Amino acid sequence: MKKILNFFKTFFGAIGILLMYVAVFYGEIFGMIHSARKHSNGDLIATVFIPPWSWYRSAELWWHDDNADWDKKLGNDMKNCFYLLNEIVYEKADVIKLNNDALELSNKIKEYPESKKKYLINGCKAYINYQNLSSKDVLTSMWKYYETGALNFLISPTTKKMEVELTTTYKLKDEIEFSNKQLEDLTNQLNNEQKLNLTLDQIEDLKMKFKSANDLLDQNKNLKWKTMFKQIFDKEL
Question: Cα separation of 70 and 67, whole Å?
Answer without folding.
Answer: 8
